[in-house]
Amino acid sequence: MEKNDWSRIIRAAGLLSYLGLVMIVAIGLGYFIGSFFDGLLSSEPWFSLLGLIIGVGGGFYGVYQIITGVMGDE
């Protein structure tokens, strides 16, 4: 393999890692905030589920923004 091929492979692996991290952080943060409000208002599991859903939506939105930004660069 040429050096340029390895560079592209490493860049793609880094992008995939970043996308996974964005999803995990968004979902985890949404769940954490939701469970905080559940504990505050004694309403388990409703705010946790709402935070989880918002986190998934936010994660997909973040991934979409990253992918459209990368596609515009190439």
Q: Tell me, what's the shape?
A: elongated
Helix % is: over 70%
Class of secondary structure makeup: mainly alpha
Mean pLDDT: 94
Strand content: under 5%
- Strand elements, count: 0
**N-to-C order of helices and strands:** HH
The profile of the biggest β sheet is: none
Number of helices: 2
Helix-strand blueprint:
Layout: H1 3-41, H2 46-73
Helix pairs in contact: 1-2
What can you see in these coordinates?
Keywords: Membrane, Transmembrane, Transmembrane helix. Pfam families: ATPase_gene1. The protein is 91% helix and 0% strand. With 74 residues, it is mostly helical. The radius of gyration is 17 Å and the shape is elongated. Helix 1 (3-41) packs antiparallel against helix 2. It contains 2 helices and no strands. The model has no long low-confidence stretch (mean pLDDT 94).
Descriptors for this entry?
74 residues; elongated; mainly alpha; 2 helices
Characterize this entry briefly.
The protein contains 2 helices and no strands.
